[in-house]
Every structure is written in structure tokens, then in C-alpha cells.
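[Q] Does anyone have a clean C-alpha cell version of this?
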Amino acid sequence: MSSTAGLVIPCKAAVAWEAGKPLVIEEVEVAPPQTLEVRVKIKYTTLCRTDFYFWEAKGSTATQLFPRIFGHEAAGIVESIGEGVTDFQVGDHVLPVFTGECGECRHCKSEESNMCNLLRMNPYRGVMLNDGKSRFSLNGNPVNHFIGTSTFSEYTVVHSGCLVKINPKAPLDKACILSCGVSTGLGATLNVAKPKKGSTVAVFGLGAVGLAAAEGARIAGASRIIGIGRNPSKFEEAKKFGVTDFVNPKDHDRPVQEVIKEMTDGGVDRSIECTGNVDVMISAFECVHDGWGVAVLCGVPSKDAVFMTKPINLLNERTLKGTFFGNYKPKSDLPSVVDMYMNQELDLDKFITHRVSFSEINKAFELMQKGEGLRCIISMED
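[A] Here you go.
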């Protein structure tokens, strides 16, 4: 066991005290892991749109759990393990993941689902499942967790079902981006849309998730990948991910799905929607070819949003699917995605556009606020 096993560890964490206000680097105390928990030394983390959304907390007041330690795209090393943990050892290289795999529920036992009943993402809970308490404290007061990961801390405690052991040779500053957005987009294409070699694919939204979906289409051998977005400056970057055409809806006086259908002799074979905008979702569905077209939705809309289309679109043998985390079961599937990178089948470097030290974490938020870059790697030790 490590020399710190069973002890409270004081360390630095970036604490969000109020919605939308800069994070503050504080010295917090991290309690030892309890039953089925693992304490992890975070080496690298990054900022995802989900962190940003709940940090802004512009939605339901139920999201406003402050003070809070955000962060969920990260990589680290196991420092110590709690009682009952048998699949990790001190020193293992791991990815904390916002959704888990208990291995026992109907979802985990199903080959068709990755939506674990026990460990599914829950942004409204700020404590650990085991005892309903936080493992973080500051001046004796608890600090809320975020979706079971809280990686904006030098040490964090994670349920063992939300932790993925990976190849120790994989560079942690690259592998960390596979614990959320990139895997979501990649899996939406490879696991759900499943384009055939030579097919046409439309990708709506050219952020990190959308470009990961395009990367999946490139890996699958698509002959034409059409990127749809409102920022033409993103097209040059999108070419690195296999995008061959760019369509800006603002350039046309008719629905963009009609433009795409005209470009592709009746519609694309597959489409992937990565924005969460309901109107875009409708366009993504209505632009696929009848008879065999498949549209996959992976953007997250507001909970009250309503999707409307004509039923004849379904009767004409178009398929509409949704996906959560690209249909990857974290513990079972993510190690193979890391191996794709190690085998040079998947290029992660082009997703990484910025790097900052932990003390500069607020710069990552500023970059996302300005819509600049894809992923900003935050080094916990710089």
C-alpha cells in the first residue's frame, strides 16, 4: 500500500464558490476511500462543455451545488483503494469516468446498453454513494463532488465502477481526453451510426464531439464527410479530421437538410448531431436517405425540448437513434479505445489545442467562453 493509504491528504483543488465566478485554488483535505472507492492522484485534466454548463449554472437551481470541485475528463494514478476493491492496485494508470459500470444491473449485463442503473451520470448529487458524504473538506466544511469524479483536484475519490484501468504506456496527457467528449463523438459514429466503407456522413456541430464523430467516420472509411456549422473558420481545422465539405446554414434560404439532400443525391447514409439544438436534430434526421439512412443524436438538449418530424420520414425507412457516451461501457470498452491511439489508428494530438498549468485553470474557462480551441490540457504538476 502507499505511504498515504488510510490518511487524509491535504492538496490543492480548484474550488468553484459561486456560479460563473473564477475558480479559486484552495488547500482541501481529501479523505481516504471507503468501500468500493479508489483515491486517485490526478496527473492531467481538461475542461469539457459539461463542466462549463454546470459552472455557469444558468439552468435549474438544482444544479447550483456550491462550493464544488468540477472536472471529469482526466487521467491519473491509483494512490489507495477502499475495502472490497479487487480490480485496481496502487500505481495503476486510470481514467475517471462520469458514468460507470457496476457489472450487476440489467443495463450492464445487456450487450446493447451502457446506462448503468447504479452509476449513471447524476449532476445533482454532490456526495459519494457509499455513505452520502463528501470526501472533500475545506476548513472542516464539506465541498461538493461533481458527477462522481471532481478531477480539478490533485487527489480525488471515485467509485471503483467509474474508474478505467488503461495501458500504463499510454501518455496520460493524451489519454485523459478519452474520458468524455472524444469517446462520445467517436462512439456515436463507430458504435451507433456504423457507416460502411465508402458511405456519406454528415456531422452537425464541429466542436470536439463533432470532430471526434468525423474522426470516427474517417476511420470507418467514409468517402465523403460533410461538416455543418455556423462558423466557417472551423472548416480548415475540420479537414484534419476527414471533413471533405462544409455547409453553413446561414448561407442558404432553405432548410439545410434540403441542401444536403441535393448535394448527395437524396440524402446522406449516416448523420451525427452534436449540438443539442432541437432544430439541428430535426435537420440531422431529415437529411438522411430514405430506405437506409440512420441519424444519431448525441447532443444534449434542454429537458423540456420537443422533437417534431413527420411520421412518414420513419415509415420511409429512415432510422433515428440516440446515444449516451457513444454507447461505450467504460470499464469494458475504453481500454480498447486507448489501444486504438497506441496503435496509431486514432489521432488524439489534433484535439489538443492548448495547455496550461493548474494555477492557470481559469484560462481554460476563458478559452471555452470565447469558443477558442478544442481541448486545453491542464497539468496538475506544473
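[Q] Thanks! Anything notable?
[A] The chain has a mean pLDDT of 95.
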